[in-house]
Amino acid sequence: IILETTSASSNYLEFRNPTRNWTLWSYGTGDGSFRIHDSTASLTRLTIDNTGNVGVGTIGPSATLTVNSSAAAGSLLVQSTAGSPHFFVNGSSGNVGIGTTGPTYKLQVDDAGTTGRIAGFYNSGTASGDNGFLHIGGAHEGNYYGVELGFINTQGAPSAYKSAMVFKTTDDTT
After folding, report:
1. 35 and 44 in contact (C-beta within 8 Å)?
2. Could you read off the pLDDT of 118-154 as tens digits, one per residue?
3. DSSP label at 54?
4. Nearest to 44 by CA among 29, 62, 23
């Protein structure tokens, strides 16, 4: 089936059943996007714009993948084929979960049964002075406060790695 027009109007194909009506839409007027529209709910569920950006819940995706949702159940879920959650973003709170679909913090990492590392933060620089720190704290009027835990690379090249573990407060005392 080829639907074609020589004008700037749109082409569409409708699918109807007793409970839901769907429209596949080549949106010729304006932006040239392709849309899957839920006609029953009067909502565009998926958009592919003329640059290849994909939007879920939006007709104007602003990135390669844009997901818009206000549903408390979540905006984005990446899971294994067995259904285990890998990455989850809560649509109403903005909380992010890795290994959980119920994050109660802005970032929550869960890995039940792990006996080793569950998170890693790395600076792959090889020069002396390429340091890595984890900052725990906040900011007020442009001033940061809190504590930092990290390492200082004192030797440079990987073959001669020597580093010191550092714990410091915001006044730079270690």
Report:
1. yes
2. 676 666 666 666 667 776 777 667 666 777 777 666 6
3. E
4. 23
Q: Tell me the C-alpha distance between 146 and 62, whole Å.
A: 35
* Cα distances (angstroms) measured from residue 151 to each of 24, 76, 161: 55, 34, 11
What letter represents residue 169's amino acid? Answer: T
Q: What's residue 134's pLDDT?
A: 72
The sign of the dihedral angle between the CA atoms of 57, 61, 67, 69 is negative
Q: What is the pLDDT of residue 74?
A: 57
Residue with structure tokens 């849309």? 35
Neighbouring residues of 76: CB distance < 8 A, sequence distance ≥ 6: 67, 87, 88, 89
Predicted confidence (pLDDT) at residue 21 exceeds the cutoff of 90 = yes
pTM of the shown model: 0.58
Instruction: Identify the bridge partners of residue 43 per DSSP, sorted by sequence position.
Output: 38
